[in-house]
Design a protein that fits this description.
By secondary structure, this protein is an all-alpha fold. 66% of the residues lie in helices and 0% in strands. The longest helix is centred in the middle third of the chain and has 18 residues.
Length: 74
């Protein structure tokens, strides 16, 4: 259970981490968690248009693709 709790804690940290891409753009602000939510919702919507896509795999990839930032950006 500790490993699961640690994973959930790290995922929750993403809401406090700003996306680094905005530093290069010079404008805007968004947390990594906001980006992950948007990406996952776009994937969900697109998967509805293409039933042959493995929705669970696609959405899982979107949910975890920035999880390493919980460690690299703190």
């Amino acid at each position: 259970m500790k490993r699961i709790a640690d994973l959930l804690f790290e995922a929750r940290m993403l809401r406090h981490i700003p996306r680094s891409g905005f530093q290069f753009l010079g404008a805007g602000h968004e947390s990594v968690a906001e980006h992950v939510y948007s990406t996952t919702f776009i994937a969900y919507t697109m998967a509805q248009l293409h039933p042959e896509i493995d929705r669970l795999k696609l959405m899982s990839m979107c949910l975890v693709h920035d999880l390493p930032e919980a460690r690299t950006e703190i």
